[in-house]
TrEMBL record:
It comes from Cellulomonas fimi. GO terms for molecular function: phosphatase activity. Gene3D superfamilies: PPM-type phosphatase domain. This is Serine/threonine-protein phosphatase. InterPro entries: Bact_Sigma-Reg, PPM-type-like_dom_sf, PPM-type_phosphatase-like_dom. Keywords: Hydrolase. PANTHER family: STAGE II SPORULATION PROTEIN E, STAGE II SPORULATION PROTEIN E-RELATED. It holds the Pfam family SpoIIE.
Length: 495
């Protein structure tokens, strides 16, 4: 990481450059003025002789003008070689930071990630702290390495609210948020921390005294660091518990553990499709779950809700997801998927009647043609231009577990930009202390507001599920799950 030049460094270098390049003060000033310099020729000459200072920005413009004169004295003509040997130079700057992060996690447990990040940040000339979001998506939890524990044990700091904080704003909007701070301290950047499109938290980057938080290159380098870090967090969480445990503000029930291990990423997308989901209560969910599979041409979606709220409900849902994936991954369509789910529920859970509601859907990403089955589940809502325009009520059949029944697949043609909202009955049936239901109308109004505000799809889902939880003061009578799918041939990247 190169050191920023002081005013004296720049002035001495300018004197040497002008003398060697035979550049007069007038020629230097003309180049400086053409690049947007504000100082007059007399002021520039006084600066060169050390008689008066110039602001850092003006000094940089003057340096750029001198460098252009130096470039004119050199030639880029070279005789080519038949074979080129790459120079064995060590990586520097952003590449060095990424290499240190990768090499720092080779055959290491998840908790070593904090130390690897420290080394990577130092290569960029900054300091960084990971803030992971809790599973309820209400708080960002700062992590640091234990100063005395061997092996890099992780310490979780005090949670930072997602709402009304700069860290939370970066997380919500998926944007880099600068923090100039107070007094003469260094500035900070809050960088969204993602694995692909799944939000994991925010990366706090403390800049050096000479860094400009508005510098596009610094922002790019911090984004690269956060992107690689996000991938490594997800990868290492697959074989160790340290980072996952830090995100849990409440211990999970065995049923919730089962469901969470079955879930795909909460957010995923392609250049034409985006899906985001969330379920509550995150620590004790019983029989709710969702699943999906994305390809270039199709998006296949499913949402499940098993009757009851016990461990058995989680087992029913787990078996249904396994049956659904088994058929889906061998090319089976909606009818075959439904038959497989029916078989596994009715065959393997016979001690007492157990049933499962679900919606299975298949979307052609080239045409917008949606095909779906609904087994006793709340009808999906079609959202167009920010408003719910209809409920998708076709393709209905009885609950899974009641045996095979003739069924007609429902169809709908989506328009570019349309969204589908799938949810379990725990959303509209959530009740406050007065017994008032949350209701579809309230859900529709909150959805309209979130879309109008321009929130990214995962933030829209988070706000909806938070509203459901707040309606019941954090205590649900039933699991509540939401899944928002957006189709647009020109969707582009989430960030």
């Amino acid at each position: 990481m190169p050191r920023a030049a002081t005013a004296d460094d720049q002035r001495r270098a300018l004197e040497i450059a002008c003398r060697r390049a035979n550049v007069s003060v007038d020629d230097l000033w003309l180049g400086y003025f053409s690049l947007g310099g504000d100082a007059g020729a007399v002021e520039v000459e006084a600066y060169l002789h050390g008689l008066m200072p110039l602001p850092a920005g003006q000094r940089d413009i003057l340096a750029h003008a001198a460098n252009e004169h130096l470039d004119d004295l050199t030639t880029r003509l070279r005789i080519p070689y038949a074979r080129v040997v790459r120079p064995a130079t060590p990586p520097t700057g952003a590449l060095a930071a990424l290499v240190k992060l990768l090499e720092g996690m080779e055959q290491e447990p998840p908790e070593q990630l904090i130390g690897a990040l420290d080394a990577a940040a130092a290569a960029l000339g900054v300091e960084a702290t990971v803030h992971l979001v809790d599973y309820g998506q209400r708080a960002l939890i700062p992590l640091r390495a234990h100063p005395r524990a061997a092996g890099g044990a992780v310490i979780a700091g005090s949670p930072v609210p997602v709402e009304s904080t700069l860290a939370g704003r970066a997380y919500q909007w998926l944007q880099i948020v600068p923090d100039e701070g107070e007094g003469d301290g260094p500035a900070r950047l809050w960088v969204p921390l993602l694995d692909g499109t799944e939000r994991l938290g925010a990366l706090e980057v403390r800049l050096s005294d000479t860094d400009d938080p508005g510098d596009p290159q610094i922002r790019r380098e911090c984004r690269w660091l956060a992107d690689l870090l996000g991938h490594l967090i997800t990868l290492s969480t697959g074989y160790g518990d340290a980072l996952d445990t830090a995100r849990r503000l409440t211990p999970r029930t065995p049923s919730a553990e089962l469901i969470w291990d079955l879930l795909p990423p909460l957010t995923a997308g392609t250049d034409r499709f985006m899906i985001a989901g969330q379920l509550e209560p995150s620590a004790s969910v019983g029989g709710d779950a969702f699943d999906y599979a994305l390809s270039h041409d199709y998006a296949q979606l499913a949402i499940f809700d098993a009757t009851g709220h016990s461990m058995t409900s989680g087992l029913v849902t787990a078996a249904a997801i396994a049956a659904y994936r088994s058929v889906r991954r061998t090319g089976g369509g909606l009818l075959d998927q439904g038959t497989a789910i029916d078989d596994v529920v009715s065959t393997h859970f016979t001690d007492r009647p157990l049933f499962l509601t679900a919606v299975l859907a298949d979307l052609d990403l080239s045409t917008g043609r949606l095909r779906y089955l609904n087994a006793g589940h709340p009808a999906p809502l079609l959202i167009r231009r920010g408003k719910i325009v209809k409920s998708l009520t076709a393709g209905r059949r009885a609950l899974f577990g009641t045996g095979h029944q003739p069924v007609t697949v429902g169809e709908e043609m989506l328009e570019p930009g349309d969204c589908l909202l799938l949810y379990t009955d725990g959303v509209p049936e959530a009740r406050d202390e007065h017994g008032d239901f949350f209701g579809v109308d309230r859900l529709s109004d909150l959805l309209r507001r979130a879309v109008a505000a321009g929130f990214p799809p995962p933030e829209t889902v988070r706000r909806l599920i938070v509203a459901v939880m707040d309606h019941q003061h954090g205590i649900l009578q039933d699991d509540a799950t939401l899944m928002l799918a957006t189709w647009d041939p020109h969707l582009g990247k989430l960030v």
